[in-house]
Protein backbone atom coordinates (compact mmCIF):
# COMPACT_ATOMS: atom_id res chain seq x y z
CA UNK A 1 0.00 0.00 0.00
CA UNK A 2 2.81 2.39 0.85
CA UNK A 3 4.53 1.32 -2.34
CA UNK A 4 1.46 2.21 -4.39
CA UNK A 5 1.41 5.69 -2.91
CA UNK A 6 5.16 6.11 -3.51
CA UNK A 7 4.78 5.04 -7.12
CA UNK A 8 1.88 7.44 -7.62
CA UNK A 9 3.87 10.35 -6.18
CA UNK A 10 6.78 9.46 -8.46
CA UNK A 11 4.36 9.68 -11.39
CA UNK A 12 3.19 13.09 -10.22
CA UNK A 13 6.77 14.35 -10.16
CA UNK A 14 7.30 13.18 -13.72
CA UNK A 15 4.04 14.59 -15.06
CA UNK A 16 4.06 17.84 -17.02
CA UNK A 17 3.22 21.07 -15.24
CA UNK A 18 0.16 21.41 -17.44
CA UNK A 19 -1.31 18.29 -15.82
CA UNK A 20 -0.12 18.72 -12.25
CA UNK A 21 -0.04 22.27 -10.98
CA UNK A 22 0.67 21.46 -7.37
CA UNK A 23 0.48 18.80 -4.70
CA UNK A 24 -0.95 20.18 -1.47
CA UNK A 25 0.14 18.08 1.50
CA UNK A 26 -0.63 18.40 5.20
CA UNK A 27 -3.09 20.74 6.86
CA UNK A 28 -5.75 17.98 6.51
CA UNK A 29 -5.93 18.07 2.70
CA UNK A 30 -4.52 16.52 -0.44
CA UNK A 31 -5.29 17.35 -4.04
CA UNK A 32 -8.26 15.53 -5.56
CA UNK A 33 -5.91 13.41 -7.69
CA UNK A 34 -3.83 12.31 -4.71
CA UNK A 35 -6.94 11.62 -2.64
CA UNK A 36 -8.28 9.32 -5.36
CA UNK A 37 -5.01 7.41 -5.52
CA UNK A 38 -4.95 6.96 -1.74
CA UNK A 39 -8.62 6.04 -1.33
CA UNK A 40 -7.98 2.35 -0.79
CA UNK A 41 -4.41 2.66 0.44
CA UNK A 42 -2.68 3.37 3.72
CA UNK A 43 -2.11 7.17 3.82
CA UNK A 44 1.49 8.15 3.35
CA UNK A 45 1.10 11.66 4.75
CA UNK A 46 -0.07 12.90 8.10
CA UNK A 47 -2.95 15.33 8.30
CA UNK A 48 -2.46 17.24 11.55
CA UNK A 49 -2.47 21.02 11.27
CA UNK A 50 0.82 21.29 13.19
CA UNK A 51 3.40 18.86 14.47
CA UNK A 52 4.03 18.28 18.15
CA UNK A 53 6.53 21.05 18.94
CA UNK A 54 6.85 23.92 21.38
CA UNK A 55 6.83 26.71 18.82
CA UNK A 56 7.95 29.24 21.44
CA UNK A 57 11.15 27.33 22.23
CA UNK A 58 12.46 26.04 18.92
CA UNK A 59 15.99 27.40 18.89
CA UNK A 60 18.21 26.20 16.05
CA UNK A 61 18.14 22.51 16.91
CA UNK A 62 17.24 19.37 14.99
CA UNK A 63 13.60 18.35 15.31
CA UNK A 64 12.71 15.08 13.65
CA UNK A 65 10.17 15.66 10.88
CA UNK A 66 8.24 13.16 8.78
CA UNK A 67 9.77 12.86 5.31
CA UNK A 68 12.95 13.33 3.32
CA UNK A 69 13.75 13.29 -0.39
CA UNK A 70 16.44 11.20 -2.05
CA UNK A 71 17.81 10.70 -5.57
CA UNK A 72 20.91 8.91 -6.83
CA UNK A 73 23.29 9.39 -9.73
CA UNK A 74 25.62 6.63 -10.89
CA UNK A 75 27.79 6.16 -13.90
CA UNK A 76 25.28 7.44 -16.43
CA UNK A 77 25.93 10.89 -14.89
CA UNK A 78 22.21 11.68 -14.66
CA UNK A 79 20.24 11.82 -11.41
CA UNK A 80 17.32 9.43 -11.39
CA UNK A 81 13.87 10.61 -10.46
CA UNK A 82 13.94 11.11 -6.71
CA UNK A 83 11.24 10.22 -4.24
CA UNK A 84 10.02 11.02 -0.76
CA UNK A 85 10.45 8.48 2.02
CA UNK A 86 10.06 8.42 5.77
CA UNK A 87 12.79 10.37 7.56
CA UNK A 88 15.43 7.96 8.78
CA UNK A 89 19.00 6.76 8.64
CA UNK A 90 20.82 6.35 5.33
CA UNK A 91 22.79 3.19 4.56
CA UNK A 92 26.24 3.96 3.22
CA UNK A 93 29.42 2.07 2.37
CA UNK A 94 32.39 2.55 4.72
CA UNK A 95 34.41 3.22 1.55
CA UNK A 96 32.09 6.04 0.43
CA UNK A 97 33.86 9.05 -1.04
CA UNK A 98 32.21 11.40 1.44
CA UNK A 99 33.47 9.40 4.45
CA UNK A 100 37.01 8.90 3.19
CA UNK A 101 37.75 12.07 1.26
CA UNK A 102 35.09 14.57 2.33
CA UNK A 103 33.44 14.76 -1.10
CA UNK A 104 30.24 16.50 -0.11
CA UNK A 105 28.28 19.76 -0.31
CA UNK A 106 25.27 21.09 1.51
CA UNK A 107 22.84 23.96 1.10
CA UNK A 108 20.43 25.73 3.41
CA UNK A 109 17.12 27.34 2.53
CA UNK A 110 13.81 27.91 4.32
CA UNK A 111 10.06 27.57 3.91
CA UNK A 112 7.90 30.26 5.54
CA UNK A 113 4.24 30.29 6.55
CA UNK A 114 2.39 33.53 5.79
CA UNK A 115 -0.40 35.00 7.90
CA UNK A 116 -2.93 33.65 5.39
CA UNK A 117 -1.51 30.12 5.61
CA UNK A 118 0.34 30.21 2.29
CA UNK A 119 3.78 28.58 2.16
CA UNK A 120 6.72 30.38 0.56
CA UNK A 121 10.23 29.43 -0.53
CA UNK A 122 12.91 32.09 -0.90
CA UNK A 123 15.14 31.96 -4.00
CA UNK A 124 15.76 28.18 -3.99
CA UNK A 125 17.04 28.31 -7.57
CA UNK A 126 20.00 30.32 -6.27
CA UNK A 127 20.86 27.50 -3.89
CA UNK A 128 20.63 25.09 -6.83
CA UNK A 129 23.00 27.21 -8.91
CA UNK A 130 25.45 27.47 -6.01
CA UNK A 131 25.35 23.70 -5.48
CA UNK A 132 26.15 23.24 -9.17
CA UNK A 133 29.15 25.56 -8.89
CA UNK A 134 30.32 23.72 -5.79
CA UNK A 135 29.85 20.34 -7.45
CA UNK A 136 32.04 21.44 -10.37
CA UNK A 137 34.77 22.51 -7.92
CA UNK A 138 34.52 19.19 -6.03
CA UNK A 139 34.36 17.00 -9.19
CA UNK A 140 30.82 15.84 -8.43
CA UNK A 141 27.66 15.35 -10.46
CA UNK A 142 24.82 17.65 -9.41
CA UNK A 143 21.05 17.69 -9.91
CA UNK A 144 19.56 20.16 -12.37
CA UNK A 145 18.17 23.42 -11.06
CA UNK A 146 14.64 22.16 -11.75
CA UNK A 147 15.16 18.89 -9.89
CA UNK A 148 16.73 20.72 -6.96
CA UNK A 149 13.82 23.17 -6.68
CA UNK A 150 11.23 20.39 -7.10
CA UNK A 151 12.93 18.36 -4.36
CA UNK A 152 12.85 21.31 -1.97
CA UNK A 153 9.18 21.93 -2.77
CA UNK A 154 8.24 18.29 -2.21
CA UNK A 155 10.13 18.12 1.07
CA UNK A 156 8.54 21.34 2.35
CA UNK A 157 5.02 20.25 1.45
CA UNK A 158 5.45 16.74 2.83
CA UNK A 159 6.57 18.28 6.14
CA UNK A 160 4.03 21.09 6.05
CA UNK A 161 2.79 20.43 9.58
CA UNK A 162 6.31 21.24 10.81
CA UNK A 163 6.38 24.72 9.27
CA UNK A 164 6.01 26.97 12.34
CA UNK A 165 3.04 29.31 12.77
CA UNK A 166 3.57 32.85 11.46
CA UNK A 167 6.15 34.72 13.51
CA UNK A 168 7.44 31.60 15.27
CA UNK A 169 10.20 30.55 12.90
CA UNK A 170 10.59 28.68 9.63
CA UNK A 171 11.20 25.22 8.21
CA UNK A 172 14.92 24.91 7.55
CA UNK A 173 15.57 22.73 4.50
CA UNK A 174 18.98 21.07 4.16
CA UNK A 175 19.85 19.75 0.69
CA UNK A 176 22.89 17.46 0.70
CA UNK A 177 25.02 16.23 -2.19
CA UNK A 178 27.41 13.49 -1.13
CA UNK A 179 29.71 10.96 -2.75
CA UNK A 180 28.15 7.67 -1.60
CA UNK A 181 29.89 5.36 -4.10
CA UNK A 182 32.75 3.27 -2.67
CA UNK A 183 36.24 4.36 -3.67
CA UNK A 184 39.63 3.40 -2.20
CA UNK A 185 42.04 5.48 -4.25
CA UNK A 186 41.85 9.26 -4.25
CA UNK A 187 39.41 10.00 -7.07
CA UNK A 188 35.77 11.11 -7.54
CA UNK A 189 33.15 8.73 -6.18
CA UNK A 190 31.33 6.48 -8.69
CA UNK A 191 27.91 7.35 -7.24
CA UNK A 192 26.31 10.44 -5.70
CA UNK A 193 23.26 10.89 -3.53
CA UNK A 194 21.14 14.05 -3.42
CA UNK A 195 19.10 14.26 -0.24
CA UNK A 196 16.85 16.90 1.33
CA UNK A 197 15.63 16.85 4.93
CA UNK A 198 13.97 19.50 7.09
CA UNK A 199 13.65 20.81 10.63
CA UNK A 200 11.64 23.67 12.15
CA UNK A 201 13.92 26.37 13.57
CA UNK A 202 14.20 29.88 14.89
CA UNK A 203 17.03 32.11 13.69
CA UNK A 204 20.50 30.75 14.44
CA UNK A 205 21.54 33.62 16.69
CA UNK A 206 19.81 35.75 19.25
CA UNK A 207 21.01 39.26 18.42
CA UNK A 208 23.03 41.22 19.32
CA UNK A 209 26.10 39.15 18.54
CA UNK A 210 29.30 39.18 20.55
CA UNK A 211 32.16 38.22 18.20
CA UNK A 212 35.82 37.35 18.63
CA UNK A 213 38.33 38.11 15.86
CA UNK A 214 40.48 35.03 15.25
CA UNK A 215 44.04 35.68 14.09
CA UNK A 216 45.52 32.21 14.59
CA UNK A 217 43.12 29.89 12.79
CA UNK A 218 41.84 30.59 9.28
CA UNK A 219 38.60 29.49 7.66
CA UNK A 220 39.89 29.47 4.06
CA UNK A 221 42.92 30.21 1.90
CA UNK A 222 43.40 31.50 -1.64
CA UNK A 223 43.02 28.70 -4.15
CA UNK A 224 41.07 26.52 -1.73
CA UNK A 225 37.37 25.71 -1.56
CA UNK A 226 36.27 28.49 0.78
CA UNK A 227 34.03 29.98 -1.89
CA UNK A 228 31.82 26.88 -2.15
CA UNK A 229 29.63 25.22 0.46
CA UNK A 230 31.79 22.15 0.91
CA UNK A 231 31.31 20.11 4.09
CA UNK A 232 35.09 20.23 4.50
CA UNK A 233 34.95 23.96 5.24
CA UNK A 234 33.04 23.60 8.49
CA UNK A 235 34.70 21.06 10.78
CA UNK A 236 38.02 22.99 10.77
CA UNK A 237 36.36 26.06 12.33
CA UNK A 238 35.03 24.11 15.32
CA UNK A 239 38.33 24.56 17.15
CA UNK A 240 38.20 28.35 16.82
CA UNK A 241 34.49 28.45 17.77
CA UNK A 242 35.12 26.27 20.83
CA UNK A 243 37.96 28.54 21.95
CA UNK A 244 35.83 31.66 21.50
CA UNK A 245 32.79 30.24 23.29
CA UNK A 246 35.03 29.21 26.16
CA UNK A 247 35.81 32.92 26.59
CA UNK A 248 32.15 33.97 26.47
CA UNK A 249 31.87 34.90 22.77
CA UNK A 250 29.09 33.76 20.48
CA UNK A 251 31.09 33.19 17.29
CA UNK A 252 34.27 33.98 15.42
CA UNK A 253 35.18 36.51 12.73
CA UNK A 254 38.06 35.35 10.52
CA UNK A 255 40.84 37.35 8.88
CA UNK A 256 42.46 36.65 5.52
CA UNK A 257 45.26 34.09 5.63
CA UNK A 258 47.76 36.15 3.62
CA UNK A 259 47.93 39.58 5.28
CA UNK A 260 45.98 38.72 8.42
CA UNK A 261 44.42 42.18 8.40
CA UNK A 262 41.35 41.98 6.15
CA UNK A 263 38.08 40.63 7.51
CA UNK A 264 36.44 37.77 5.64
CA UNK A 265 33.38 36.22 7.28
CA UNK A 266 31.94 34.78 10.45
CA UNK A 267 31.81 30.97 10.76
CA UNK A 268 28.38 30.68 9.13
CA UNK A 269 27.48 34.14 7.82
CA UNK A 270 28.70 37.22 5.97
CA UNK A 271 29.51 40.50 7.69
CA UNK A 272 28.63 44.13 6.87
CA UNK A 273 29.60 47.44 8.42
CA UNK A 274 28.00 50.86 8.23
CA UNK A 275 30.08 54.04 8.42
CA UNK A 276 28.89 57.55 7.46
CA UNK A 277 25.80 56.05 5.77
CA UNK A 278 27.91 53.80 3.52
CA UNK A 279 27.48 50.03 3.77
CA UNK A 280 30.62 47.97 3.17
CA UNK A 281 31.18 44.21 3.00
CA UNK A 282 34.21 42.11 2.03
CA UNK A 283 34.31 41.25 -1.65
CA UNK A 284 33.98 37.57 -2.52
CA UNK A 285 37.32 36.51 -4.01
CA UNK A 286 37.21 32.74 -3.55
CA UNK A 287 37.70 32.57 0.21
CA UNK A 288 34.24 33.90 1.13
CA UNK A 289 30.99 32.07 0.47
CA UNK A 290 28.57 33.92 -1.80
CA UNK A 291 25.39 33.63 0.25
CA UNK A 292 21.88 34.23 -1.07
CA UNK A 293 20.92 36.45 1.87
CA UNK A 294 24.03 38.59 1.29
CA UNK A 295 23.07 39.19 -2.35
CA UNK A 296 19.47 39.95 -1.40
CA UNK A 297 20.42 42.47 1.29
CA UNK A 298 22.76 44.27 -1.10
CA UNK A 299 19.95 44.59 -3.66
CA UNK A 300 17.44 45.81 -1.06
CA UNK A 301 19.91 48.34 0.37
CA UNK A 302 20.72 49.77 -3.06
CA UNK A 303 17.02 50.07 -3.86
CA UNK A 304 16.65 52.13 -0.68
CA UNK A 305 19.30 54.47 -2.06
CA UNK A 306 22.15 53.26 0.15
CA UNK A 307 25.67 53.18 -1.18
CA UNK A 308 27.01 49.62 -0.92
CA UNK A 309 30.67 48.80 -1.44
CA UNK A 310 32.07 45.30 -1.99
CA UNK A 311 35.80 45.59 -1.37
CA UNK A 312 38.63 44.59 0.98
CA UNK A 313 37.78 45.75 4.50
CA UNK A 314 40.62 46.03 7.05
CA UNK A 315 40.00 45.04 10.65
CA UNK A 316 40.98 48.56 11.79
CA UNK A 317 38.19 49.98 9.63
CA UNK A 318 35.69 47.56 11.16
CA UNK A 319 36.63 48.73 14.64
CA UNK A 320 35.73 52.30 13.64
CA UNK A 321 32.29 51.44 12.20
CA UNK A 322 29.02 52.93 13.43
CA UNK A 323 27.05 49.70 12.96
CA UNK A 324 27.90 46.09 12.16
CA UNK A 325 25.60 43.22 11.17
CA UNK A 326 25.73 39.72 9.72
CA UNK A 327 23.60 37.98 7.09
CA UNK A 328 22.86 34.38 6.17
CA UNK A 329 20.02 31.91 5.69
CA UNK A 330 20.30 30.55 9.22
CA UNK A 331 20.90 33.93 10.91
CA UNK A 332 18.77 36.14 8.62
CA UNK A 333 20.04 39.64 9.50
CA UNK A 334 21.60 39.91 12.96
CA UNK A 335 23.06 43.02 14.60
CA UNK A 336 26.52 42.81 16.15
CA UNK A 337 26.74 44.34 19.61
CA UNK A 338 30.46 44.01 20.10
CA UNK A 339 33.72 42.71 18.61
CA UNK A 340 36.92 41.88 20.47
CA UNK A 341 40.29 41.98 18.71
CA UNK A 342 43.63 41.49 20.48
CA UNK A 343 42.00 42.17 23.84
CA UNK A 344 40.26 45.37 22.70
CA UNK A 345 36.45 45.32 22.74
CA UNK A 346 34.48 47.71 20.55
CA UNK A 347 30.72 48.13 20.94
CA UNK A 348 28.28 49.16 18.22
CA UNK A 349 24.86 50.71 17.98
CA UNK A 350 21.97 48.27 18.32
CA UNK A 351 18.17 48.57 18.42
CA UNK A 352 15.46 50.05 16.26
CA UNK A 353 16.10 52.73 13.68
CA UNK A 354 19.36 51.27 12.40
CA UNK A 355 20.14 50.27 8.84
CA UNK A 356 20.24 46.57 9.70
CA UNK A 357 16.76 46.68 11.25
CA UNK A 358 15.26 48.35 8.20
CA UNK A 359 16.87 45.78 5.92
CA UNK A 360 15.82 42.89 8.18
CA UNK A 361 12.17 43.96 8.28
CA UNK A 362 12.08 44.34 4.51
CA UNK A 363 13.70 40.99 3.87
CA UNK A 364 11.41 39.10 6.25
CA UNK A 365 8.38 40.97 4.94
CA UNK A 366 9.15 39.73 1.44
CA UNK A 367 9.84 36.18 2.64
CA UNK A 368 6.46 35.82 4.42
CA UNK A 369 4.35 37.65 1.83
CA UNK A 370 3.71 40.87 3.78
CA UNK A 371 5.72 43.10 1.44
CA UNK A 372 5.38 43.12 -2.33
CA UNK A 373 8.03 40.97 -3.95
CA UNK A 374 9.09 43.14 -6.87
CA UNK A 375 12.21 41.02 -7.32
CA UNK A 376 10.36 37.76 -8.01
CA UNK A 377 12.36 36.05 -5.28
CA UNK A 378 9.53 34.24 -3.53
CA UNK A 379 7.85 31.04 -4.72
CA UNK A 380 4.33 30.31 -3.46
CA UNK A 381 4.16 26.51 -3.31
CA UNK A 382 0.54 26.07 -2.28
Q: Any chance you could write out the topology, listing elements then pairs?
A:
Blueprint: H1 2-14, H2 32-38, E1 67-73, E2 83-86, H3 97-101, E3 104-106, E4 109-113, E5 119-122, H4 124-137, H5 145-158, E6 170-179, E7 192-201, E8 209-214, H6 238-246, E9 251-255, E10 263-266, E11 270-275, E12 278-281, H7 292-303, E13 307-310, H8 315-319, E14 323-328, E15 332-341, E16 344-347, H9 355-367, E17 378-380
Description:
With 382 residues, this protein is α+β, with helices and mostly antiparallel strands. The protein is 24% helix and 25% strand. It contains nine helices and 17 strands. The strands form two sheets. Strands 8, 9, 10, 11, 12, 13, 14, 15 and 16 form a nine-stranded mixed beta sheet that branches. A hairpin with a 7-residue loop joins strand 9 and strand 10 (263-266).
Order of helices and strands: HHEEHEEEHHEEEHEEEEHEHEEEHE
Main β-sheet description: 9 strands, mixed
> Percent range for helical residues?
10-25%
Mean pLDDT reading: 89
Which residues sit in consecutive blocks of at least 5 with pLDDT less than 50? Answer: 1-43
> How would you name the oligomeric state of the polypeptide chains in this document?
single chain
Strand content: 15-25%
Number of strands: 17
- Helices, by number, come to 9
Structural class based on helices, strands and sheet pairing:
alpha+beta
| Rg (CA only) | 22 Å
Amino acid sequence: MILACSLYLRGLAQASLSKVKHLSIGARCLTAEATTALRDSEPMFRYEEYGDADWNKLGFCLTRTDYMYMAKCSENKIFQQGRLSNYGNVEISPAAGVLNYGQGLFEGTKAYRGDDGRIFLFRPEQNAIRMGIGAYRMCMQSPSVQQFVDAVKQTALANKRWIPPPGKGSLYLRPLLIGTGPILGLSPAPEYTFLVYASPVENYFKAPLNLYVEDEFHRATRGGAGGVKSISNYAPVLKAISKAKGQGFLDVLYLDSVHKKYIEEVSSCNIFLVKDNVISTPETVGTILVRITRKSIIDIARDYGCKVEERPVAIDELLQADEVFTTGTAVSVAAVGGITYKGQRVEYKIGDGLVSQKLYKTLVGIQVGKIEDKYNWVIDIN
